[in-house]
What does this fold into?
Amino acid sequence: MPDLADVYRAQARPGGSEHWSGPPQMVERIARTLGTAPADLVVDVGCGVGGPAWRLAELVGCRVIGVDVVHEVVRSGARRFGRRVRFVGGAAEALPLRSGVADQLWSLGTAAHVVEQDRMGAEVARVLRPGGRLAITEAFWEGRGRPRFSATAPRPWRPLTVCGLMSALQASGLDDIRALPWPGVGIAGAYDASDPELRRDLREGRLVPTLVVGRKP
It folds into this structure.
């Protein structure tokens, strides 16, 4: 089972994909769902090399800050997309940002790699301004049979249920928390994961990609 940081470093090498968490078209769909506006400041937690963050900035014209725990990946993202996106190193459980700074917070395919969901929820609530919106995508465990991906997933990773995440977000003070269809539905190749065990889990419904949204009162 590989280390997450090593996998991210490999993906960040020249020629690698700029979108690790689903097809690029997901960005437009999430922006429509949340009503992202040009005046917004959006924080992308677990941004990787920044493909979605750059696409959002280009699409909407908003400001975007990308946060990732792997500093080599942050540097790679800054070289590629620093003209439109600000990149900073930091963990989802301890975001290096001022309280109430963000109009929206996105986290695409990162939540299952976060060990302390309660701390992540608290940081989301701290960084969002009142009325700020949240979007999290993940392949969630349905609770029926342990995912095969557990044996091959980059560590840290653990099966995460929708209810478990929503409970952590609710405990942090967020409201209007809802589970919506994954924004990659209907896009060609959206389920073509590189890991064969993950592909099997997705095909058999052990892991179900979903979009979770919420709001800070």
Q: What stands out?
A: The CA atoms of residues 145 and 206 lie 7 Å apart. The beta strands are 41-45, 63-68, 85-89, 102-108, 128-141, 175-181, 207-215. The mean pLDDT is 95. Residues 4-203 form a domain with the Rossmann fold fold (CATH 3.40.50.150).
